[in-house]
Amino acid sequence: MIFGRDKTQLPTPETALPGRESRPFAVGDRHLVTGNPIETDGPEGFEVAVFGLGCFWGEEKTFWEQPGVWSTSVGYAGGITPHPTYEEVCTGLTGHAEVVRVVFDPAVTSYDQLLKVFWENHDPTQGMRQGNDRGSQYRSILLTTSEEQQRKAEASRDAYQRQMTAHGYGQITTQIRPLDEYYYAEEYHQQYLVKNPFGYCPLHATGVQYADV
């Protein structure tokens, strides 16, 4: 609880923090692993996908290791407060989740393949937490950037639900909706596990494999 409020409850527009008109911190220029820009949509023909599956430090590393991923960043999305800080997101009063923004080459990898990475690297049935990380910022969320991504994300959820049910898990709680705004996180969060190779950010995968839709 913070300020007498449960951080697993999403705020309303009336109760959300007001935020600000512009970003109050630096993000950084180049990706420390790929060497490509951080604030980018990538070369012509590349695509962008946004995934929230818990603590974004380890999950960013999971995605930048995938073939065809050109750049990644971590940030905040899915909520209300414009240009939030990490401290504000942690209060649960912004509505944002910690997310990874992935720029990828569809000639090398596909959104379907990235969805497989998403489903297999967390537990999508836990609601407003992942493991001991409790709060709305740790919820499972897919924020789509096209109608095709929306369709594929929903189909993948339905397919994975069948597999999860067969393994004794409950209902998937993953939110799936179009991306509204993505706000980059502070520079020290970007490629955090490169800067802090012994940093703590556990995965909470179920071990249930995702089969293609």
What is the strand and helix layout of this fold?
Blueprint lengths: L46 E7 L2 H9 L4 E9 L8 H5 L6 E8 L6 H10 L8 E2 L2 E2 L5 E5 L2 H20 L8 E4 L3 E3 L7 H4 L18
Parallel strand pairs: 6-7
Antiparallel strand pairs: 1-3, 1-6, 2-3, 2-8, 4-5
Helix pairs in contact: 3-4
Share of residues in strands: 15-25%
Radius of gyration: 16 Å
Q: Which range best describes the helical content: under 10%, 10-25%, 25-40%, 40-55%, 55-70% or over 70%?
A: 10-25%
SS elements, strand count: 8
State the assembly state of the protein chains: single chain
Envelope shape: globular
CATH fold-level assignment of the domain at 47-195: Peptide Methionine Sulfoxide Reductase, Chain A
Describe the structure.
This protein is α+β, with helices and mostly antiparallel strands and 213 residues long. The protein has a domain at 47-195: Peptide Methionine Sulfoxide Reductase, Chain A, CATH 3.30.1060.10. Helix content is 23%, strand content 19%. It has helices spanning 56-64, 86-90, 111-120, 147-166, 192-195, and strands at residues 47-53, 69-77, 97-104, 129-130, 133-134, 140-144, 175-178, 182-184. The mean pLDDT is 95. It comes from Aeromicrobium camelliae.
Compact description:
This protein is α+β, with helices and mostly antiparallel strands.
Defining traits:
Peptide Methionine Sulfoxide Reductase, Chain A, Met_Sox_Rdtase_MsrA_dom, peptide-methionine (S)-S-oxide reductase activity, alpha+beta, 23% helix, 213 residues, two-stranded antiparallel sheet, L-methionine:thioredoxin-disulfide S-oxidoreductase activity, 6-stranded mixed sheet
